[in-house]
């Protein structure tokens, strides 16, 4: 696995930040709006992560420009687009978001259904975890997931994170499971 931590160098390789054997992760751009729109409106994304209220390409472009996936206060944080190395097919997102209300760096990931069960989510999440520790210098990284999202819980446990408690991320949140290294 390798990563590119120099911004100019990253631009020269199409914004790639993290490269694994099968994937590369790069910063989201407004050119990714149609993919983001499709991903966030996929049924399991909406039920496990939440409805982002995104219904049009313009909504997706605005979300990419102004939303939390790309506008984090901490440098190097954000959700990155996951693409297959072999054909640059966009398959999901993975990255780190700083959850100020909890004081944690949150490892997040989501893939389109047709790419689940092939190890891509684990590969991307492991790469982001290593990036967080090695490049960003984060000591402890958390994972937040719907308490009934068995697939994400399995990946978090495989990464070595352990269940800590149920937290409420919003007033209407039925409970989100917090896992920690």
Blueprint of the fold:
Layout: E1 2-3, H1 7-12, E2 16-19, E3 23-27, H2 33-40, H3 43-48, H4 57-66, E4 78-84, E5 90-99, E6 104-111, H5 120-134, E7 142-146, H6 150-158, E8 162-167, E9 176-180
Parallel strand pairs: 6-7
Antiparallel strand pairs: 1-2, 2-3, 3-4, 4-5, 5-6, 7-9, 8-9
Helix pairs in contact: 2-4
Structure, explained:
The protein is α+β, with helices and mostly antiparallel strands. The chain has one domain: Aminopeptidase (3-Layer(aba) Sandwich), CATH 3.40.630.30. It has helices at residues 7-12, 33-40, 43-48, 57-66, 120-134, 150-158, and strands at residues 2-3, 16-19, 23-27, 78-84, 90-99, 104-111, 142-146, 162-167, 176-180. The longest helix is centred in the last third of the chain and has 15 residues, at 120-134. The protein is globular and about 35 Å long. The chain starts with a strand and ends with a strand.
Question: Which labels suit this protein?
Answer:
disordered N terminus; alpha+beta; 181 residues; nine-stranded mixed beta sheet; globular; 30% helix; Aminopeptidase
Beta-strand level of the residues, as a percent range?
25-35%
Name of the top-level CATH class: Alpha Beta
> What structural class results from the helix and strand content?
alpha+beta
Biggest sheet, spatial arrangement of strands: 1-2-3-4-5-6-7-9-8
Unreliable stretches: 3-14
What's the order of the H and E elements? EHEEHHHEEEHEHEE
Report the CATH architecture.
3-Layer(aba) Sandwich
**Major sheet size, sense and barrel closure:** 9 strands, mixed
Portion of residues in helices?
A: 25-40%
Distance between the termini: 21 Å
Number of strands: 9
Instruction: Predict the CATH topology.
Output: Aminopeptidase
Principal-axis shape equals globular
User: How many distinct folded domains?
Assistant: 1
The radius of gyration is 15 Å
Number of H- or I-type helical stretches: 6
The CATH superfamily turns out to be: Gcn5-related N-acetyltransferase (GNAT)
Mean pLDDT metric = 91
């Amino acid at each position: 696995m390798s990563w590119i931590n120099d911004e100019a160098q990253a631009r020269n390789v199409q914004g790639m930040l993290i490269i694994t054997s099968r994937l590369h992760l790069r910063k989201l751009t407004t050119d990714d709006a149609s993919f983001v729109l499709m991903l966030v409106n996929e049924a399991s994304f909406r039920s496990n992560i939440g409805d982002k209220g995104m219904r049009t390409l313009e909504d997706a472009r605005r979300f990419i420009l102004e939303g939390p996936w790309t506008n984090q206060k901490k440098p190097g944080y954000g959700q990155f687009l996951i693409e297959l190395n072999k054909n640059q097919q966009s398959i999901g997102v993975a990255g780190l978001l700083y959850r100020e209300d909890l004081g944690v760096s949150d490892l997040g990931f989501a893939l389109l259904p047709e790419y689940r069960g092939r190890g891509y989510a684990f590969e991307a999440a492991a790469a982001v975890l290593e990036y967080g520790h090695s490049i960003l210098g984060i000591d402890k990284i958390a994972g937040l997931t719907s308490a009934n999202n068995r697939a994400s819980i399995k990946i978090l446990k495989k990464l070595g994170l352990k269940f800590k408690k149920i937290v409420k991320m919003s007033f209407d949140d039925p409970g989100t499971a917090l896992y920690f290294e």
